[in-house]
TrEMBL record:
One of its GO terms (cellular component) is plant-type cell wall. Its main location: secreted. This is Pectin acetylesterase. It is found in: Secreted, Cell wall. It comes from the Eukaryota. It is an enzyme of class 3 (hydrolase). Its EC number is 3.1.1.-. Keywords: Cell wall, Cell wall biogenesis/degradation, Hydrolase, Secreted, Signal. The lineage of its organism: Eukaryota, Viridiplantae, Streptophyta, Embryophyta, Tracheophyta.
């Protein structure tokens, strides 16, 4: 019967090549005023497989409730608006009973008082606006056929509400803003340790986008929570933000990150103590904290094994960092920003240069055998959280390996996992993002 469903789905997909697939997790674009997602690429093979998968998968994803950390307030570990932080947890069982996967939510940054005040009224600044239940899919799925290596682990999604990748420790009394990301990180880890994580023999810290950056920043801290005998590693998805010039020659992302770091300093001491002390010290000894907010300068100094999942043409970086509207006064990049298929030859050439800079950024990182990476040539952002890109029929591959298998091979030391895709447009397994 299952084969019949798959065959029917495949045939239907071939006939319905204009089928639209919509994004269900685009929160990472909120602070940059994104374009709404319209469709995936016109890859008929992918759409047929995706339809077959959706048709065969009739059970809905696991919905997991929100847990607020009641002890957080007394420690000042609060969201931007002063509300309690929270997380979603689903318990492991069997062989995964003492294994823990902790995923840090993404959602951009607020780099000005105005933007942070706005964030206070969203789920990325207040637990009052957070969903009470969220689906656990992709790397958080509880189904063996969707998440073969981690499905029966204790799986946790930590909600993001501090605007600074879980790394600030200050406040702005005039605007009633609390930049307490580091305290949120600490109090959530304490709470999880009290709920059994202290007994873990295996642990993986992951995150996507701003959460992927946070996973890099806190990777070694996470390792120190466990005994040396435990297998502890970290995974950053779409967190390799590059300090590179945009199409006008201006460094837009550096300016944005400068706002985040400077906004979250400790005004009482007039020193950069709010965030600087929480960034990787191996980096801050050599660079100022703004530079160290870019992971390209810190990944090689992370002592804990680290895996990077990133696209060489990250759509968030294209829209917000490489070709933002502020740098495109004549609208030359409007079409390319929305749809990779509308990029001109010169625009693709510019994006190939960005890919080259990403490969250069991981050069030193790749010399350390403990590390791993999966850098594919897709126009996408965050691939471990979505089921279609993490592990499903037609999911993105580099050669014969998909993302879930590559991460699993690296985590369990089954094989060296350092995969770099050929340049666009050679990869026909991509799930490209296209915007209206």
């Amino acid at each position: 019967m299952m084969m019949l469903y798959l065959w029917l789905g495949f045939m239907y997909g071939l006939m319905m090549c204009s089928l639209t697939w919509k994004c269900v997790n685009c929160s990472e674009f909120e602070h940059s005023q994104p374009l709404p997602l319209q469709d995936w690429n016109n890859n008929v093979t992918y759409k047929a497989a995706a339809f077959a998968y959706a048709y065969a998968r009739r059970t809905p994803p696991l919905m997991v409730g929100l847990t607020l950390v009641n002890a957080a307030a007394s420690k000042g570990a609060v969201c931007l608006d002063g509300s309690l932080p929270g997380y979603h947890i689903h318990r492991g069982y069997g062989s995964g009973a003492n294994s823990w996967l902790v995923q840090l939510e993404g959602g951009g940054w607020c780099n000005s008082i105005r933007k942070c005040v706005f964030s206070k009224k969203t789920r990325h600044g207040s637990s009052h606006y957070m969903e009470k239940h969220i689906p656990f899919e992709g790397i958080l799925s509880n189904k063996n056929e969707e998440n073969p290596d981690f499905y029966n682990w204790n799986r946790v999604k930590v909600r993001y509400c501090d605007g600074g990748s879980f790394s600030g420790d200050s406040q702005n009394e005039a605007a009633q803003l609390y930049f307490r990301g580091q305290r949120i990180w600490s109090v959530v880890m304490e709470d999880l340790m009290s709920k059994g994580m202290r007994y873990a023999n295996q642990a993986l810290l992951s995150g996507c986008s701003a959460g992927g950056l946070a996973a890099i920043i806190h990777c070694d801290e996470f390792r120190h929570l466990f005994p040396r005998t435990a297998r502890v590693k970290c995974l950053s998805d779409a967190g390799l933000f590059l300090d590179v010039p945009d199409i006008s020659g201006w460094r837009t992302l550096r300016y944005m990150f400068a706002g985040v770091v400077m906004l979250q300093k400790n005004y009482m001491c007039n020193l950069l103590q709010g965030m600087q002390k929480n960034l990787p010290q191996g980096c801050t000894k050599r660079f100022n904290p703004i530079m160290c907010f870019f992971p390209q300068r810190s990944i090689a100094s992370v002592r804990t094994p680290l895996f990077l999942v990133n696209t060489a043409y990250d759509t968030w970086q294209i829209q917000v960092s490489l070709a933002p509207a502020s740098a495109d006064h004549h609208g030359y990049w409007n079409g390319c920003r929305k749809n990779y298929a509308r990029c001109t030859g010169s625009q693709i050439s510019f994006l190939q240069g960005f890919r080259n800079q990403m490969l250069y950024a991981v050069r030193g990182f790749s010399r350390l055998k403990k590390n791993g990476f999966f850098i594919n040539s897709c126009f996408a952002h965050c691939q471990t959280e979505r089921q279609d890109t993490w592990f499903s029929p037609g999911s993105p591959h580099i050669k014969s390996k998909g993302i879930a298998e590559s991460v699993g091979n690296w985590y369990f030391d089954r094989a060296v996992s350092m995969a770099i895709d050929c340049p666009y447009p050679c990869d026909n397994t991509c799930h490209h993002l296209v915007f209206k």
